[in-house]
Amino acid sequence: MTEITAFSRPKPDFVLNRPIWLLPSVGFMFLFFVLPLINNFWRSLTEDRAQASALFYYAKLFSEGYYRDVLFQTLTLSTFVTLICLVLSYPMAFFLVRHSGRLQSLVIFLLIAPLLTSVIMRTVGIQLILARKGALNALLDALGLPLLPAGLSSGTFAVYCGMVQVLVPFMVLSIAPVLQNIDATLEEAARILGASRLKTFLEVILPLSFSGILTGCILVFMMANGSFVTQLLLGGGKVITMPVLIFQQFSVTQEAAFAGAMGNVLLFLCTLCLVLQFIVVNRAKGRIA
Fold first, then answer.
1. Which of 71, 122, 163, 182 is the most buried (most CB within 10 A)?
2. What is the largest CA-CA distance in the chain?
3. Domain 51-288 is in which class?
4. Cβ-based neighbour number of residue 103 at 10 Å
5. Closest CA to 285 of 220, 212, 183
6. By C-alpha distance, which of 97, 98, 158, 93 is closest to 124?
7. Rounded to an integer, what distance in angstroms lies between the CA atom of residue 97 and that of residue 104?
8. Structural domain boundaries in the chain
9. Helix (H) and strand (E) counts for the chain?
10. Taking the chain, what is the end-to-end CA distance rounded to the nearest angstrom?
11. Is it the case that residue 126 has pLDDT exceeding 70?
């Protein structure tokens, strides 16, 4: 009898497997990402040599009340946008994973469809919806309900609507894969042991989906911190955040070094968020293991 042995296909030794082919992509990232960051940081320290301290612009950013208020408003706006997106996105992600069935592809398409359009078109659309004679007021008038007050098409409310509309899909797509990977037998075991649906959700599903929640919150918070077009167009000059102020420093006052210092502060906050996510997720995995 002929002995049958497992056949393993040898790994082809293609030229493309060599590390040298990484050099174009690494060089591109270094040239157009790393070097600009280094140059931006260096200019923020040495642009104005008349100043006594290299950290002059950073000291100005944190010492003067106006700039502290702008930084605080930026963080406050990003935090509340993140919380709103979380509240809206978790039920959507749960429905997408557990109850959409054959409609899952359609739900995903409807979820990401707004991202396929230009941010300018989305922004103008929100202004038209919230306008005094816009679509929302027309609907309220047809239903005999009170109309929205004038001025909502530009300002804080419009900025929140625009940012939430853009960032909700990112939160949903961060939470849904984690919910998908939760073992259904854990829920069944909790129900067999007498836990209600609410208790099962609060003590089983919600803790196990924490990593997806954290990832979505970090992603949305960082994107909200750097959001510029939505805040500029929908803010109407009433919402001044760090990205809008950076734009003003470049285009109006021509203080590129000060704008670079502001950008570096935002970059540091985003890096801090990523480090926090890494630490928390690793600790959670260690507890689960």
1. 163
2. 90
3. mainly alpha
4. 12
5. 212
6. 158
7. 8
8. 51-288
9. 15, 0
10. 47
11. yes
Instruction: Determine the Cα–Cα distance for residues 95 and 26; give it in Å rounded to an integer.
Output: 40
pLDDT at residue 47, as a whole number: 67
Query: Are the beta carbons of 93 and 199 closer than 8 angstroms?
Result: no
Report the share of the chain in percent with pLDDT over 90. Answer: 18
The amino acid occupying position 113 is A
* pLDDT at residue 12, rounded to an integer: 53
Question: Which pLDDT does position 6 carry in this prediction?
Answer: 47
Residue type, 281: V
User: Which token pair is 64?
Assistant: 């003067």
- Tell me which residue has tokens 């959700």: 201
- Amino acid identity of 233? L
CB 249 within 8 Å of CB 262: yes
Rounded Cα distance, 215 and 170, in Å: 10
CA 289 – CA 179 distance, rounded (Å): 18
Write out pLDDT tens, residues 257-275. 888 888 888 888 888 888 8
